[in-house]
Write a structure and sequence with these properties.
mainly alpha, 4 helices
Length: 81
């Protein structure tokens, strides 16, 4: 729908419009596998620990870890590709 009114839609392929390399895709997949758990998981952590402190910690920790891993994959992978 973003390109519905654009006359050059058929002239340019999707891979040329959105430059996602295999390295970027791999970093994104790693991020999605590690990042912030669902709200139900955070609620379960809160219920078992009795405090929102651990639930917030789990959310922030997993998101930071996912970002660091993705960043490392992209930067280290860029050295070899």
């Amino acid at each position: 729908m973003l390109y519905a009114d654009d006359a050059e839609v058929d002239a340019v392929s999707l891979s040329e419009r959105i430059p996602i390399t295999p390295l970027v895709a791999f970093g994104y997949m790693v991020f999605v596998l590690i990042y912030f758990p669902c709200i139900a998981t955070l609620a379960a952590i809160k219920g078992e620990s009795g405090s929102w402190k651990w639930a917030v910690f789990a959310g922030l920790y997993t998101t930071a870890l996912a970002w660091l891993m993705s960043f490392a994959i992209y930067q280290i992978g860029g050295l070899f590709l």
